[in-house]
Amino acid sequence: SAFNQLLSVGKRCHEAAKKRPGGGLPPTTATPPTLSTQSNFPDEGPISLSDLAINDPFVPLWPRILPTLLCALDAVLQLWHPNYQAVLLRHNIQRYALAISDEEAYLATKQDSTAGGVYGEGGTAGSIVSGWDRRDVNLAPKWSGWLNELRHTCFQLLGLAAGQRVLFAPELAGIFPRFVSVIVDERHLKSMENRHLTQYLKQFLEILLLSCPATLYQSHLSPILGPLFEHLQYRLQCNWAPIIEPNTLRSSSETTKALTTPACENAAALASNTGEEWFLTYYARCGLFVGDLDAVTGEEVVEKARVELSRALSDCLQAALALKGEWGLVLANQAKEEQAVKKNDPSKLKSGPRTRFNDQEGRRVNADGTPRSENDIAIEARKTLRINSMCRFLLLENEKIAGFLVLTVIQCLGYPDVYTCRRCARICHRILETVSWNEQYTDLLGNKMFSIVVKAIVTEPKWMVGLEWDMINVLRDVYCRLVLGQTLLPGGQGPGLQQPRDPTNPALFEQSKSVDKPLQGGGVLCRSSDMPRVILSRLPSISVENIQTLDKGLTEKRAAKDQKDLLRELLLAAAEALKETEGGFSGNDSTFGSLFERAGTAESLLNQKAQRSAIVPDIPEKLVTYSMMQKHKEQENTDEQAAALGDIFKLS
Fold first, then answer.
1. Per residue in 117-152, pLDDT tens?
2. For the chain, is the Cβ count within 10 Å smaller at the N or the C terminus?
3. pLDDT at residue number 114
4. CA-CA distance, 13 to 160, in Å (whole number)?
5. What is the DSSP string of 518-533?
């Protein structure tokens, strides 16, 4: 299509622009490396298309492309509105425009591609629209693939426009309101399937967050992130409700099944009402219509769509908070430079993982082993400014964005997906480092976040095996900052650094010097909160004396391992008492029972110390290694030489 050709040319121009001497910075505003430590940059704001076009010849085309692109995206997203679905689902052929493609069904089955792919043995070709082959004249089996390609191309073009900084140019200020009205239209967000939103986050939003100049966060990100985070919080809650609450009336194994051809009439009748009931069932099945696909594969497709959306969101937030990706690399480079200065060893700046990119010796390399360019210092200075500004913007400057973002991350800690939970635990540390000192967050952090983490550890569900230390570390971070007045290193690492009491008011802690620097550890809540203590005291077999003993131990032993062991021992007592009272998993639905079944004693981290002596038995025989054999031979040769010398000087 024409959009595909534009996307291909635009990407090549953008990649070529980044390889120019300025590293993608406009030549007229590029800051020399010697001046890159300043905090204000002339190019951290709107830049005209003419300046951007000096490096990237594709830029001047955007005023002609963008209006048509927005019209196309608006039209394709409208097909999934309930009023259109009510019409299309009733038609025995048109309904397949809303279906997934054969390729998507095949990817959900996780089959080996060596068997021939979609068309090979066990492939899914012809399983969505039965009775027709995509090689036939009938175009119905091809519609879903075409619409997928069009939608993905539109999202990628919008991501390209953000990456080329065209969206922030003053010449396009007049079209920006139209842009916002399309990409965060409430009807579009509510009607998109999970698979649509996943690509939206990956191909557009993440690039937008990383490319927007720090001075334009309020004007260009606020109108987009507010409605989007609000919708994502509600959608994920509805996605996972049938899984984590299987006993409710509207949450059963039937509601999570993808829509199939025989059920289209009933779904069309429900869609025509466009009420909340339609969206609840729509989100429970992740919005998927799988045509004539078999039930087993249909369930796999729904499960894949459910976890991929939460994973895409966690990855996007990690990139925006400099926990991964190009911003994470900037912080890794800074840590590497600090280590080289501290050890007075410049060679560390030229060392890194061996890759195919760093075969030349003596060149400075990034922390991931890739070579550094001449203008990387100036580029990283701008990225550092954006990293600090983004943390503050997302969590402190807009109440709506911060509220829904933090609530969504906290809820993701309870969703049974290891990938999402582990990454959201890392995001929780960054949240605590940034806002734990703010009393407006005390309820969210000390009550909601703390209670969800405690529940996850004490109930010991099987899906969380291997995540316990990550969760205990989040628990420690909350308790230290909100209760004990202790700061930690970024990521909840290192010993607890105790803040002294305020000499003018002993009820308060003195604030940390790094309170405004979350990347250096952040601050503490000066007025200690009792919420975490109350939550722990409500656990079975946990008394006030146990809490006091815990506080004393965490204050006296501030090493990370000691503090985590103290928390684990306390939660072990609660878990054992809870295990005796609950009698195992209480759910009636066998579909979800195994997922939330309590982990066995051999799997449980809380019982790890009791098992530790029997985990790795001693080797029944002495271990002899190659190096030991070589050392033994060398010793024998030495003894022989010594004996020969002795014979020379032997007296007769």
1. 766 666 677 778 877 665 566 778 888 889 999 999
2. C
3. 64
4. 10
5. GGGT----SB---HHH
Burial annotation 88-104 (CB, 10 A radius, 16+ → b, else e): bbbeeeebbbbbbbbbb
Amino acid letter, 537: S
Spatial distance between the Cα atoms of 597 and 620, rounded to a whole number of angstroms: 37
Cβ-based neighbours of 254, under 8 Å, separated by 6 or more? none
Q: Give Cβ neighbours of residue 31 (< 8 Å, ≥ 6 apart).
A: 25, 38, 41, 42, 43, 378, 381
Contact present, 595 and 585 (Cβ < 8 Å): no
Q: Which two tokens stand for residue 587?
A: 């759910």
Q: Is 460 left (phi over 0), alpha (psi -120 to 50) or beta?
A: left
User: Which DSSP letter does residue 446 get?
Assistant: I
User: pLDDT tens digits for 557-606?
Assistant: 999 999 999 999 999 999 888 888 765 443 333 334 455 567 666 666 66
Separation CA 637–CA 640 (nearest Å):
5
Whether 260 contacts 298, CB under 8 Å = yes
pTM above 0.90, yes or no: no
Enclosing H/E stretch for 161? helix 140-163
> Residue 229: pLDDT above 80?
yes
pLDDT, one tens digit per residue, over 204-215 is: 999 999 999 999
Identify any residues that bridge with 259 across adjacent strands, giving them in sequence order.
Answer: 289
Q: Are 494 and 484 in contact (CB under 8 A)?
A: no
Please report which confidence band the pLDDT of residue 349 belongs to, taking 50, 70 and 90 as the band edges: low
What number of other Cβ atoms are within 10 A of residue 335's Cβ?
12
Per-residue confidence band for 618, with pLDDT thresholds at 50, 70 and 90: low
d(CA 107, CA 117): 9
Question: Whole-angstrom Cα distance, residue 496 to residue 494?
Answer: 7
Distance of CA 154 to the CA centre of its chain: 23
How many whole angstroms separate alpha carbon 3 and alpha carbon 156?
A: 10
SS3 135: coil
Residue 460: how many CB atoms within 10 A of its CB? 24
- Per-residue pLDDT, 613: 47
**Contact of 289 with 100, CB cutoff 8 Å:** yes
Measured in degrees and rounded to the nearest 5, phi and psi for residue 192 equal -65, 145
